[in-house]
Design brief:
Layout: E1 3-5, E2 10-12, E3 17-23, H1 38-50, E4 55-59, H2 72-86, E5 93-96, H3 100-109, E6 113-116, H4 125-131, E7 136-140, H5 158-175, E8 183-186, H6 195-203, H7 206-209, E9 216-217, H8 223-229, H9 237-249, E10 254-257, H10 260-272
Parallel strand pairs: 3-4, 3-10, 4-5, 5-6, 6-7, 7-8, 9-10
Antiparallel strand pairs: 1-2
Helix pairs in contact: 1-2, 2-3, 3-4, 6-8, 9-10
Bound molecules: 6-hydroxymethylpterin-diphosphate.
Length: 281
């Protein structure tokens, strides 16, 4: 059985799992400012669990194109109180950060997963994860950095380059002693990629499964869906659910989404129809 080892849970990936997004930020591209206080963020966590989320992914810093980096102090002030509360809700809790100090503080609280858009490339990050005995980790691909990543992303073969990067990061982590079962990979939809690059990563997603790790995918509300449909971010629910289903059908086992209830409903139908039999790793 395919699983993801995390601090407190071994997550069964024999079917797709829904990771609900909790942005404790004033400026996230879709829900900025909606769950900015600790109380509002925890209420949102509980709401997402009622809707069927399997995992909660909490972040204090927006990584939207052009986002301004946040100080460590401000990030800790935003995320730690919410993490403390979320850890009692009975599901795996993930921290979306690239700062080693934030990872360490979150892991000290008992957080289950480190989700890093820089794939542990910031100083000290890899060492923090490697020093932990069991936490899960998501390594994401990004070309450039959020401030400038959408200015002119260039690839020869986007699939080959993303796959090579992710394989190298996973190898670095394993060389530092992290077990394969703790690692999942994410091609980073929208992170230094044009709409064409993102769509190639969907149509050829199966090639990433060949790396031998579970895939986590985040299409939710992203601009490529706006390019395809002509709709603003607030009107991309249907396209987001469709993208999540397509990713699941093509073998992704972790879906990072804002719209948990709609995604869970759609997955139930896809599962009943036998469309989620994508190749397990
Ligand atoms: N996307 C965002 C943030 N973190 N992590 C992973 N692993 N994969 C993703 O695709 C991903 C991610 C951006 O979405 P969101 O958190 O809603 O927006 P913002 O960064 O503006 O807070």
């Amino acid at each position: 059985m395919q699983t993801w080892q995390t601090t407190r849970y071994r997550i069964d990936l024999s079917r797709p799992r829904v990771m609900g997004i909790v942005n404790i930020t004033p400026d996230s591209f879709f829900d900025g400012g909606q769950h900015g206080s600790t109380q509002a963020a925890l209420a949102h966590c509980e709401q997402l669990l009622k809707e069927g989320a399997d995992i909660l992914d909490l972040g204090g810093e927006s990584s939207r194109p052009g986002a301004v980096p946040l100080s460590l102090e401000e990030e800790l002030a935003r995320v730690l109180p919410v993490l403390r509360g979320a850890l009692s809700l009975g599901v795996p809790v993930s921290i979306d950060t690239y700062k080693a100090e934030t990872m360490r503080a979150a892991l000290d609280l008992g957080v289950d997963i480190v989700n890093d858009i820089y794939a542990l490339r910031w100083p000290g990050a890899l060492e923090v994860v490697a020093a932990h005995p069991t936490c899960g980790v998501c390594l994401m691909h990004m070309q450039g950095e959020p401030q400038s990543m959408q200015q002119k992303p260039i690839y020869g073969d986007v699939l080959a380059e993303v796959a090579a990067f992710l394989a190298a990061r996973a190898s670095a982590l394993e060389a530092a002693g992290v077990q394969t079962q703790r690692i999942v990979l994410d091609p980073g939809i929208g992170f230094g990629k044009t709409a064409e690059h993102n769509l190639a990563l969907l149509t050829r997603q199966r090639e990433l499964l060949a790396l031998g790790y579970p895939l986590l995918i985040g299409w939710s509300r992203k601009s490529t869906l706006g390019r395809l449909t002509g709709r603003p971010v607030g009107d991309r629910l249907v396209a987001s659910v469709a993208a999540a289903l397509a990713a699941a059908q093509l073998g992704a086992r972790l879906l990072r989404v804002h719209d948990v209830a709609a995604t869970v409903d759609a997955l139930k139908l896809w599962e009943a129809a036998g469309l989620l039999g994508g190749p397990a790793v």
